[in-house]
Specification:
This protein has 282 residues and is of the alpha/beta class. The chain has two domains: 225 residues, Rossmann fold; 39 residues, no CATH class. 30% of the residues lie in helices and 25% in strands. The strands form three sheets. The protein has a six-stranded mixed sheet with strand order 6-7-8-3-9-10, with helices on both faces. A four-stranded antiparallel sheet has the order 2-1-4-5, with helices on one face. The longest helix has 18 residues. One of its GO terms (cellular component) is plasma membrane. It is a peripheral membrane protein. Keywords: ATP-binding, Cell membrane, Hydrolase, Ion transport, Iron, Iron transport, Membrane, Nucleotide-binding, Transport. Its EC number is 3.6.3.34.
């Protein structure tokens, strides 16, 4: 797996690991014996077909879901035994399809990212204000801060939620499909933003992504899951192979090197032209 890039200003490294996790949902096992040691200060992606357990795994890593067995450790301590506020100052989660109160503005939503840094008697500070302003600026929402969330397009709403996680100023970000609803330009902007936070500020980023080429382009490491089990873990050029795509997604493909980035570039074979050679059951 790729080593984290060096940065002189990183004084500490929060460590998030999963050990032999078994996760259940509705009495059904979704994740079986899955382990992951996330290198601090790296940017990684989790890939796999729909229903394979990616989002469930991310929820367990964020302490939203308690494992049936195994453990998630944050800095060597079981995350399920840690105070919620402490976890929220270290780790931020952007789930799929988050919901907000009706009528809340972008600024008010993003300000909620500061709650973990407050105790009951503490007031809003200049530090809080600057954190919110920075999050709005980074996501291009400064001029829209007073707009209600429910009047936004899907892409604008997604950027507002990303701004909330940025205002939280955690050292680890877990994002479940952060490019949902975004057109290609905004997808690149969001992923470039996360890459900048990772490379310049040392934020550890873990994303669930459906776009394999985006995962390969922006990740130091990729975890591939199928049927709740780990299939592969490693650098993009180790994981993104034609055999892996067939094994995990049941499709034929061609994997070449992207001429502009040098990262793997996957092109799926058209299913209608495969005939008897299609690997997906009919």
């Amino acid at each position: 797996m790729t080593s984290p890039p060096a940065h002189d200003s990183w004084s500490s490294a929060h460590k998030l690991t999963a050990s032999h996790l078994r996760l259940t949902y509705g009495g059904r096992t979704v994740i079986e014996d899955l382990s992951l040691d996330i290198p601090p200060h790296t940017m990684g992606s989790i890939i796999g077909p729909n229903g394979c357990g990616k989002s469930t795994f991310l929820k367990a890593m964020a302490r939203i879901l308690k494992p049936a067995s195994g453990a998630v450790m944050l800095d060597g301590e079981p995350i399920t035994s840690m105070p919620t506020r402490k976890v929220a100052t270290i780790l931020g989660l952007l789930p799929q399809n988050p919901s907000a109160p009706a009528g809340i503005t972008i600024a008010d939503l993003v300000a909620r990212g500061r709650y973990p840094h407050h105790h009951f008697v503490e007031r809003w500070t200049d530090k809080d204000e600057k954190a919110v302003e920075r999050a709005l600026a980074l996501t291009g929402l400064t001029d829209m801060a007073g707009c209600p969330i429910d009047r936004l397009s899907g892409g604008q709403r997604q950027r507002a939620w990303i701004a909330l996680t940025l205002a939280q100023q955690t050292d680890i970000l877990l994002l479940d499909e952060p490019t949902t609803y975004l057109d290609i330009a905004y997808q690149l902007e969001v992923l470039d933003l996360l890459s900048t936070l990772n490379r310049q500020e040392g934020v550890t980023v873990v994303m669930v992504l459906h776009d394999l080429n985006m995962a390969a382009r922006y990740s130091d490491w990729i975890l591939a899951i199928k049927d709740g089990r780990r299939v592969a873990l490693g650098a993009p050029d180790e994981v993104m192979t034609e055999n892996l795509v067939t094994e995990v997604f049941d499709i034929a493909s061609t994997v070449a090197k992207d001429g502009s980035t040098g990262t793997p570039l996957m092109t799926p074979a058209p299913l209608h032209s495969l005939g008897a050679h299609s690997v997906r059951p009919r």
